[in-house]
Amino acid sequence: MITTDICIIGAGPVGLFAVFEAGLLKMRCHLVDALPQVGGQLSEIYPQKPIYDIPGYPEVKAQELVDNLMDQIKPFKPTFSLGERIDHLSKQEDGSYTLTTNDKTQIHAQVVVIAGGLGCFEPRKPVLENLETFEGKGVAYMVKNPEQFRDKKVILAGGGDSALDWAIYLSDVAKRVTLVHRNETFRGAPDSAAKVFDLANQGKIDLILSANLKELGGNGHLASVFLEDKAKSKIKIETDYLIPLFGLSPKLGPIADWGLTVDRNAIEVDTRDYSTGVERIYAIGDINTYPGKLKLILCGFHEAAIMMQSAFKYVYPDQKLSFKYTTVNGVNSF
Amino acid sequence: MVTFTVEDHDGNRQSIEAPDDMGLSLMEVLKASEYPVLATCGGMALCATCHIEVLEGKNGLGEATDVELDQLEALPEYFPTSRLACQIRISEELDGAIIKLRGEDN
């Protein structure tokens, strides 16, 4: 069990800066992020893109901002659980919270701060009637352990880099790999696309172009997939697995079940302190909403500062909070 | 001002008027008109939650960029007329166009 004052869900720029604001008030933070690295969208999606609206920086690259934030919070020794997602939240008798990740890491915190940005990136699912019945029974949305597919028949669907890369990789592992794509060409890396066409010519991959997934068949476990080709005729393929790879889409994930007031994938907060309707749970940055909300990093920074002043009373119930400037007081590391 | 038509998921059509001199995107106007467009990423062509179809007026609306096509073609459901509303600027080209809302999340 990890014990901390504040558990921050999301290690994007706002989650990181929240550590600084907490640190000034002598509150320790543990951060959890579903991505394997800190920085959120900035590191994952646009690390090399310049940002122009961070006060004091006429221009800063996204990754550079993240690196600087990591430097800035170093004195406050934050700890991290990366590549993990908070699945459960349970309130303790004294009002504090115990959080559990999908890897069963447990974190005990006085205050929970949701700085989850766009939410968790989850796989996009094709629209197929009985898709859910076969999830985990032949339908998988990612390849976690390629050995699972050794000597099995696998159908991959999609035309992006991951569909191409896995088709190439699994052609050596699986008994049979079929790649289904709705177009004639691939938008993924040209090298990978060329390799896939090569493997198809050598008979190592079955490539079915201009076709769409239509129907799944099987009794308990997936056994066949029906496709529809350009001429609208139906093709049946016997298979053990179907792996649809249609990219990722941001979803609120388990947070949606925590009893918070959610409006269109965002958490409603009170602008006095960015608290949610549930005591000791706050939401800051892109994941919250309120009248006049702007999804800007700088607004998230502001929210973090205000929010930590409010959280102080839960961490130090017997102390009176006195506001101090860093220019007067300095930054006193832990 | 330009006027165009929006068809929602139930097939209802409504005429929308929007200023063409404020640098707004179609996504922003759809949101402002209370359509259920999530636009989670805020207009960076990252989430495809503002997926629409341009039923009429396609030629005047410009070509989708590579970033936009990457998103669109990754969607489970995608049409030759598909666009991301966040990547379409409100301009006079949109006048008279017919837009249909798409997307699983909307």
Key words describing this protein structure:
heterodimer; A: 334 residues; alpha/beta; FAD/NAD(P)-binding domain; 2 domains; 22% helix; B: alpha+beta; Ubiquitin-like (UB roll); five-stranded mixed sheet; 2 helices; globular
A few lines on this structure:
Chain A folds into 2 domains: 2-121 and 249-329, FAD/NAD(P)-binding domain (3-Layer(bba) Sandwich), CATH 3.50.50; 125-246, FAD/NAD(P)-binding domain (3-Layer(bba) Sandwich), CATH 3.50.50.60. Chain A is 22% helix and 29% strand. Chain A is built from 7 helices and 21 strands.
CATH class descriptor of the largest domain in chain A = Alpha Beta
Name the poorly predicted regions of chain A. none
CATH topology group of chain B: Ubiquitin-like (UB roll)
Give the class-level CATH name of chain B.
Alpha Beta
Count structural domains of chain B: 1
- Average pLDDT confidence of chain B is 87
Main structural class of chain B: alpha+beta
- Rounded to the nearest angstrom, the distance between the terminal CA atoms of chain B is 26 Å
**Span between N and C termini of chain A?**
21 Å
Query: So what's the overall shape of chain A?
Result: elongated
**Count of beta strands of chain B:** 5
Query: What is the correct CATH architecture of chain B?
Result: Roll
Helix run count of chain A: 7
The number of helical runs of chain B is 2
State the domain count of chain A. 2
